[in-house]
Amino acid sequence: MILSDLLKEIYKKPLPEASGNLSIETISCDSRQKQVQGFFVALSGYKVNGEDFIKDAIHQGAVVIAKKGANRRISKPMSFPNASVGNLEVANPGPPIETFGGDSLEYIIPDSVVVLDVEDPKSFLREITLRFYDHPSRKVRVVGVTGTNGKTTITYLLENIFKVNDQDSAVIGTINYRVAGRVVPSKNTTPGFLENQSLLNDLALAKIPYCTMEVSSHALDQGRVDGIDFVSAIFTNLTQDHLDYHKDMENYFKAKSILFQTLNSSSSAIINLDDAYGQRLLGLTKGRSCTYGIKSQADVRAIHIRYSLKGTELDLVFPKGAISIRTGFIGEHNVYNILAAAACAYQEGVALNKIRQGIQGLGCVPGRLEPVNGSQNFFVFIDYAHTPDGLINVLKALRVVSSNKIILVFGCGGDRDKTKRPLMGKAAGELADHSIITSDNPRSEEPAAIIEDIQAGFMKSNYEIIVDRKEAIAHALKLAKPFEIVLIAGKGHEDYQIFKDHRIDFNERQIVLDLLH
């Protein structure tokens, strides 16, 4: 796109002579990305300032820089250890230093690079990005799924329903991003603003009609889904999580509610009526509400539910019609996930028989009560449950379908909400017969300290501690007798473990199979 066209009515100041005809091929706010004929916007983040990386962006190919203030001299504070320049200590000093003076490294932007002075770089980035990609969400029907639990399963269900309805769809979520035939590992549940617009543009160019997107509370709070015109938004539930970020449940709810407050009158708000926070959302959205539930008189309801270790049978009742479902999914929490996906598909005009085929045709979701079969005479399940409510739901689901002993292996992540740790210990102590407390992703914390926090929630001594997660899993498998259940919770689909200064491969499914063999 020509620079003058990109900036028309957005940037009111005069452009440098002859620069208006400059061709722009990429937009970025990440100096690590290749930027052929790039337009780099220097944002101020939570921990870093984008201006400190302008030199890196230019080395990557940026030809236009937008920043607050037009001064071409950039100062880089000397705040990092482990390398030296003169008598000062710096880490990762980067490319060769052009100018050095005082207490900072300085870099003068070359005259060949256009520098734009913008008052609000974040708002400016949003405006030019939407113009550059031509509002791609107006060409793709985007469904946003938010809530504490159930988001991933719902996106998989919708993907399969659309598939049997002969409608291609993409999925952006916790496990990976499946976009236009590509599978990209997920860095965040919801990508950043720029990446979202780029991914949706890929779908628009490929003429893929649907995208189902997991929308996290962090993404909503940080504006990562700004500029996306959602045709439907699904609310699953709200239980304690991420309070290290949101501080309290009210702030957490306010972040989630942004998705529904920004819907227009032609969009659908698919809301769990059995959840108290869902009931509050009904009064906050302009979207056309479609409720679902088991206990309430919702628009879409599940009745005649029959649970077993082999799966679930149920009837779904819609405003116009009903269908019977038989699925391998286990537990009440999965009935809610099925209801949410079915209600959304119904609002999108998918026929009831296609909804049934799509739900019944999905075997399982990676790391969501995923069975592991290695010819053993007991049951092994891997689940992502990493919140108190998630763990309660999974343990209750198993307790309903089996009276046999449940052996639980779980831990809690480091550098995350510490207040949920004793709550998870309490849930484990009450609902599992025997628990093995172990490491999850300890990150910068000491595993023993995390385990001590969890241990505080146990009201009885039906647990033991094995810090090494692989050893804990091996011990659980040795303890299990015929027809008993081993539940390995917390990491689910993840195939790694994160420690303070390193990360290791850790595929629990493969580890279990290797141990069983």
What is the gist of this entry?
The chain has 517 residues and is of the alpha/beta class. A hairpin with a 4-residue loop joins β27 (496-498) and β28. The radius of gyration is 26 Å and the shape is globular.
Write the layout of secondary structure elements.
Elements: H1 3-7, E1 26-28, E2 38-41, H2 54-59, E3 62-67, E4 73-77, E5 83-85, E6 88-90, E7 99-101, E8 104-108, E9 114-117, H3 121-133, E10 141-146, H4 151-164, E11 169-172, E12 176-179, E13 182-185, H5 193-205, E14 210-214, H6 217-221, E15 230-235, H7 243-246, H8 249-261, E16 268-272, H9 276-281, E17 288-293, E18 300-308, E19 311-318, E20 321-327, H10 332-347, H11 352-360, E21 370-371, E22 379-383, H12 388-401, E23 406-410, H13 420-431, E24 434-437, H14 447-455, E25 463-465, H15 469-479, E26 485-489, E27 496-498, E28 503-505, H16 508-516
Parallel strand pairs: 1-2, 2-3, 3-9, 10-14, 10-15, 11-14, 15-16, 16-17, 17-18, 22-26, 23-24, 23-26, 24-25
Antiparallel strand pairs: 4-8, 5-6, 7-8, 11-12, 12-13, 18-19, 19-20, 21-22, 27-28
Helix pairs in contact: 3-5, 4-10, 4-11, 10-11, 12-13, 13-14, 15-16
